[in-house]
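Please check this record.
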Amino acid sequence: MAKAFASSLTEAIYRIRLKESKSVRVVQDELGYALGKRGGASIEYWRKGHLPVKLSDIEQLAREIVLRSDLDVLWLQDFLQSAGHPNPERVCQELLPPAEGRFVQTVTEPVVTTLPVDTTLFIGRKQELENIAQNLADPACRILTLMGPGGIGKTRLAVQAAHECADLFPDGVFLVSLASVNDPDLLLLAVANAVGFSFYSEETAVSQLLSFLRHKQLLLILDNFEHLLGGISLLVQILQQAPAVQMLVTSRERLNLRGEWAIALTGLKFPILEAPTDAPDTQWRQTFTQYSAIQLFIQSAQRARSDFTVLEQDKPYIARICQLVEGIPLGIELAASWVRVLSCRDIATEIEQSYDFLATRWHDVPERHRSLQAVFDYSWDLLAQPEQEIVQQLAVFRGGFCREAATAVAQTSILQLLLLVDKSFLQQTTTDGANTRYHMHELLRLYAL
C-alpha cells in the first residue's frame, strides 16, 4: 500500500511540475508549506515508501493536489485508498462533485507538449495528415507507425500531425527523440525523460514508469525507432498496461506488432515530363506550383537566395530535379540549396551525373541527413548481409519489376520481398487490381549498384 501511495503522490508532483513549469523540489516544498510543514521533507519521506500518519495531512494534501492539477476522480480514489483513508468516497464527493464531472483541461489551458517549433513552413501531405488524425482519433489505434526511407519526412510529418491532434490528449504530447539512443536498454530512460518522470523507489524502473502512465491519456512520439527494435518489449508493456496511451512511431522499418497500424510514406507530388523541351502549353506547366514538391523547392531556394524567382525557362529543370529525387523532401532541399551558385539547369545536370552532389554543411541537421549518401549508408547498415546482396541483385531493374522477375534474377522468396518492403527498400504497388509490382527508389537503386 505504501508503494502505491508513493506512486500516486509522485504522479501528482510530476503533473504539477509539467503544468506549472517548476522543479520537483519547489513543488514538494510548496505542498509541504500547504500542510503547515517547514518545506518538502515530509513529502519526500512519503515518496520513499512511508505513509502519512495524520488523516488531516492526507486530506489536505489531496485537496492541494486537486486544486493544482488536472488529475481526475480515478486518481483521487487510488490516492486515498493507498493512503489508508477510511472514507475515500466522502473526500471524492467533496473535492470532485459528480456535477462537475472529471477535471479536464479547458480550451484556455494548452495541452502540455514537448514538440519543437518548426522554423520552416510545412508543405504538402494533406492526405497523410488526414489519415493520421483519423487514426489517432480512433481509440483502437494504439500504435501508429510512419514508415519510409531516410529523408522522406517522417519526423516532420509526425510533429505536424501531433500539433494538429494535441487536443485529443489532455495529459500531453511528448516527443521521444531516439536518434542518439544506441542501446535498447536506454529506451526506458528516454521515455521517462521525455514525459518528465524520475524514478523514486526500489521498485523496478519499468514498473514505476508503467504505474505513472497507467491512467494517462497522452501521445508518445517515438522518433527514429528502427535501430531499437531490441527494446520493443517496452512498447508492448505500455500497450498492455496503459490503455489510454497512444504511440506515433517514425521508423525506416515496420515494427511488426500485432496491434500496429502503419502508413508507408512516399515522395511529395511532382510533375512528370518527358524532356525539358516540353511545349509551353503542356498541362504540367499550367499547374506547376500546385505540386507539393515544387512548392518545397521554391521555398527552400528562397531561403538559400532571397532574390530567387522562378523564370519560365527554369520550370522544366525544377520539375526534372524533383523527378530525379522522386519527391524526397531532403533531396529537394539539398538540391535547392545550390541555387546560390548554380542555375536550375546545372543543378539537374549535376544530379543526373551523380547523387553525391546532394550534400550540405547545415549545422542544425543531423550528420546522417547532411547528404543522401549518408542517408543511404545509414539504411544500408541496418540490413543483414544476405539482404544487402538481394538488394544489389534487384538494383538491375530500372522502373520496377514483378515477383517472377525477382525470383529469376535474385532467387528471392515472397517473404524476402516483403521484408525489403517492411524495411523501406522496396515499394509495393498493385496494378489493374491484381498484378503486384515492386519499385526501388531510383537514387537508392544507383546506390546499390
